[in-house]
Amino acid sequence: MAIPESNRRAIRKYDAEHYSMLSVRIPKELLQEFKEKCAASGDSQAKIIKEAIEAYLNK
After folding, report:
1. 7-58 residue pLDDT tens
2. What global pTM score does this model have?
3. Which among 8, 17, 47, 48 is placed 20 to 30 Å from 58, CA to CA?
4. Residues in CB range of 49: below 8 A, 6 or more apart
5. Are 48 and 38 in contact (CB under 8 A)?
């Protein structure tokens, strides 16, 4: 089932108000290993990165 355009606009608006994008450059081998480990453990890549940032900030 497709998401109505009005819902997409609402989601984009919410995301723009509450989230920012983070872009990083890392070696391909490291990224591939990260993706494989996330897939094997069933963890979201975004979740792991968010937790690492929070740990770094001592939250």
Report:
1. 999 999 999 999 999 999 999 999 999 999 999 999 999 999 999 999 999 9
2. 0.73
3. 17
4. 22
5. yes
